Amino acid sequence: MNEDEFNMQVRKFLKEVGVTSQREIEKAVRSALEDGRLDPNGSVKASVLLKLEGLDVEHTIEHDIRLS
């Protein structure tokens, strides 16, 4: 295995996950705030499931995102 290439590929994947996730979170929160479904002083519970196909790995990350 080429460690440098592997590291670069993992970083590219994580960058895509981060950028895409941030966009989706911001879009959903703005929409919910506009519709009155979300308290602007509240928080949103978020979770991400990381799966590595064929490696029997599933890891969930959970976090409360405070809005103010």
Q: Kindly report the oligomeric state of this protein.
A: single chain
Count of alpha and pi helical runs: 1
Largest sheet: 2 strands, antiparallel
The figure for the number of domains is 1
Overall geometry comes to: elongated
**In order across it, which strands form the biggest sheet?**
1-2
Strand content: 25-35%
**SSE order:** HEE
Kindly report the average pLDDT value.
98
Distance between the ends: 45 Å
Number of beta-strand segments: 2
Structural class by secondary-structure content: alpha+beta
Radius of gyration: 16 Å
The helix content is 40-55%
Give the uncertain stretches in residue-range form. Answer: none
What features would you describe in this structure?
It is a single chain. The N and C termini lie far apart (45 Å). This protein has one domain (3-66). The protein has 68 residues and is of the alpha+beta class. It is elongated. It has one helix spanning 3-35; strands spanning 43-52, 57-66. Strand 1 and strand 2 (57-66) form a beta hairpin. Strands 1-2 form a two-stranded antiparallel sheet.
